[in-house]
Amino acid sequence: MKTTQTRLAAVAALTSGAVAITCDKDSLQSAFSSIATVDFATWMPANSTFNIPKADIAYPTAPTQLRAACAVQVSVKNGTSNYGFGLFLPDDWNGRFLAVGNGGFAGGINWLDMGAGLGYGFAVMSTDTGHNSVNNNGSWAYHNEGAILDWGYRAMHGSTVLGKQLTTAYYSNDILYSYYSGCSTGGRQGLRNLQLFPDDFDGVVAGAPAWWTNHLQPWTAKVGSYNLPNTSAHHIPPTLFPAIGAEVMRQCDGADGVVDTIISDPEACDFNPDLLLCTPSKNTSCLTVPQLNTLHQIYSDYVDTNQTFVFPHLWMGSEAQWVPLLGLNAPNNLGPHYVQYFLQRGPEWQWQDFDYGVIQQADAQDPGNATADDFDLSPFMERGGKLLHYHGMGDGLIPTGSSVYLHSQIFRTLAPKDVDLDSFYRFFLVPGMQHCTNTATTVNAPWYFAGANQAATLSSSVSGVPGFRDAKHDILLAMMAWVENGTAPAEIIATKWVNDTLQDKVMRQRPLCMWPKKQKWSGQGDVNAAETWSCE
Ligand SMILES: *[C@@H]1O[C@H](CO)[C@@H](O)[C@H](O)[C@H]1NC(C)=O
Ligand SMILES: *[C@@H]1O[C@H](CO)[C@@H](O)[C@H](O)[C@H]1NC(C)=O
Ligand SMILES: *[C@@H]1O[C@H](CO)[C@@H](O)[C@H](O)[C@H]1NC(C)=O
Ligand SMILES: *[C@@H]1O[C@H](CO)[C@@H](O)[C@H](O)[C@H]1NC(C)=O
Ligand SMILES: *[C@@H]1O[C@H](CO)[C@@H](O)[C@H](O)[C@H]1NC(C)=O
Ligand SMILES: *[C@@H]1O[C@H](CO)[C@@H](O)[C@H](O)[C@H]1NC(C)=O
Ligand SMILES: *[C@@H]1O[C@H](CO)[C@@H](O)[C@H](O)[C@H]1NC(C)=O
Ligand SMILES: *[C@@H]1O[C@H](CO)[C@@H](O)[C@H](O)[C@H]1NC(C)=O
Ligand SMILES: *[C@@H]1O[C@H](CO)[C@@H](O)[C@H](O)[C@H]1NC(C)=O
């Protein structure tokens, strides 16, 4: 890895004799080869709102109260590759580059997460991944191999290469360090990128990654089917999900040693679902025998022909987020659309047609080369790259166990080569956090640490951790301290405010622990203060 000194020397060499580039369409265009076209470049004074182009249907929320910056949008045509990206170039640049990610099947520039990155002073980039669509609509992929590959990995890499080129030209300066932060599909994008292009980023923060694309998407159809059709005796109506969540909380909350509405150790809980059974004396907020069978399926790994493990189950404690996958009248589009439009079975294919052949086809084809299953991360490690990975334990969209499984696969690949995983890759579970952000109102777990999408959950103007702008509480600052100073994070303190939209009163803080350590309360002092907890 380059030291700061050699990087600064490179900067000095570049500065002499460079041509000045300004925040202007034509000026910026001169920094580019012909495959890239600058659509617009607009300078925004401090405290501006960035007005999002109308076409961007996936990310319509405008970031507000921004730092003074040049806002740029670029379109790229490169063979069968066709994508765009946005870039914020701050006036008071911190010398570093940050790329942010996308979600689901979305195509669009994530200007809101870019705004959160701009708050640190990064030159920050988001790719549209090569198409325009909302998160849960994958029909753009039908008969569109180029778009699938762009979504799979090409657009992120190309946008990173070109975004860095533009940043370097604009400041007439080399970039000191490059980072990535994304969650869900964004987590997958970060992992896939470091596997295929280990030189792109010095540090990658990957949250709740949708990394196992060719199993996760079919499983999404499969798990939805457990609770369908909605007319069947085995259907659990979504109105009963809170009763299930409450019973899980009642039985499992204390398994970690503290009754605090946060289930920190679901695997330590010996859950007895029969306590939910309807009886003559208990005939509300209860489940029938066929419904209990459905519940059993939801909490079981998906295992198919010849006992083949296909995908891990949702964890207990995720019930408050079950509606999108289990509470609709059909499986979430993120499942069937993958089979219909990525595997090209067409719109005639219905979830009732699901069989193991879908998994076999997905394994054989892996559309877009999207699945981040090159578990040998040694090229990234050898160039000095660092990876921080996290996942909420209350995630109802991407099972927490898929991250545990990923960590295990990487361990099994690298430990035999005598690699100490913790030296470059650290994994943190977040008790009580849902998918990427937030916590159920019945849980109130500390969930905020400035991970991807989190600032946007608080408001359109937040960046970093209000009141706690340090590497102990902010995962991006923790990554920078690791890459730039060699200070590896053993814990990250997560925060829950009394009212998340008003960050004036902290309700709880607690350390997130590096896997496989678990949070342990000292038994003394304020249970809501981070100091009374340790990782063991
Ligand atoms: C920044 O803009 C907001 C409205 O978006 C306004 O309420 C606030 O007063 C402005 N702050 C400054 C320092 O101008
Ligand atoms: C998905 O997008 C296509 C193309 O824009 C549109 O025709 C279709 O109605 C959308 N489907 C859903 C389920 O939103
Ligand atoms: C353009 O396409 C080539 C060939 O596929 C690829 O190697 C290169 O990374 C692409 N560049 C960009 C900026 O997309
Ligand atoms: C439900 O239980 C209550 C007593 O808890 C009883 O009065 C009522 O008749 C029961 N209803 C049915 C439909 O079994
Ligand atoms: C299951 O195992 C049997 C016996 O080894 C084998 O013949 C068959 O091909 C396997 N099926 C699948 C789907 O892998
Ligand atoms: C069941 O699903 C159908 C669509 O398949 C829908 O029309 C109906 O309203 C649903 N019923 C309930 C009770 O949700
Ligand atoms: C897919 O990725 C693998 C590395 O995992 C690479 O060898 C292969 O060339 C890629 N295929 C395409 C079509 O990009
Ligand atoms: C690295 O350490 C120095 C000295 O403690 C500190 O000033 C700087 O902010 C640190 N950099 C990062 C990225 O944490
Ligand atoms: C949080 O504060 C906002 C703004 O004052 C208010 O609209 C919202 O109802 C509050 N939420 C809770 C849970 O108190």
Automatic annotation (TrEMBL):
Q: GO: which molecular function terms?
A: feruloyl esterase activity; metal ion binding
Q: What is its EC number?
A: 3.1.1.-
UniProt-listed Pfam families: Tannase
Is Metal-binding one of the keywords UniProt gives this record? yes
**Keywords noted in UniProt:** Calcium, Disulfide bond, Hydrolase, Metal-binding, Serine esterase, Signal
Which residues are the signal sequence here?
A: 1-20
Task: Tell me yes or no: is ATP-binding among this UniProt entry's keywords.
Answer: no
- Family recorded in the similarity comment: Belongs to the tannase family.
Please identify the protein, giving its name as recorded.
Carboxylic ester hydrolase
Organism for this UniProt entry: Aureobasidium pullulans EXF-150
